Amino acid sequence: MTDGVRRGGPHLVLGLLYHPEPAPGRDHLYARLPPPARWARRMLMNKFRKTLKDLTAD
Q1: What is the rounded distance in angstroms from the CA atom of residue 10 to the CA atom of residue 16?
Q2: CA atoms of 47 and 37, how far apart (whole Å)
Q3: How far apart are CA 14 and CA 26, in angstroms?
Q4: Is residue 3's pLDDT more than 90?
Q5: Is the CB of residue 30 less than 8 Å from the CB of residue 38?
Q6: Handedness of CA 45, 51, 52, 54 (dihedral sign)
Q7: What is the pLDDT of residues 14-58, one digit of tens each?
Q8: How would you class 47 by CB atoms within 10 Å of its CB: exposed for 0-12, middle for 13-18, buried for 19 or more?
């Protein structure tokens, strides 16, 4: 039953700070992220956009 269920991850956390509207305090949260998370932010956001696109296709 859970074979097709996607796992959660940091891409969902960062993506949901933007979608559907930017969350208050988002910039403050980003400033406190560890450097590897800040460096990977673009990649994680791209993964989040792909997840949204896949969900709308279903």
Answers
A1: 10
A2: 14
A3: 9
A4: no
A5: yes
A6: positive
A7: 888 888 899 999 889 888 988 988 899 999 999 999 988 988 876
A8: middle
CB 15 within 8 A of CB 52: yes
Of the candidates 29, 55, 25, 23, the residue with the CA atom closest to the CA atom of residue 41 = 29
The 10 Å CB-count burial string (b at 16+, else e) for 29-44 is: eeeeeeeeeeeeeeeb
For residues 37 and 10, is the Cβ–Cβ distance under 8 A?
yes
Amino acid present at 26: R
Supply the pLDDT for residue 46: 95
Cα dihedral angle (9, 3, 46, 43), rounded to 10 degrees? 50
Provide the token pair at 36: 């590897």
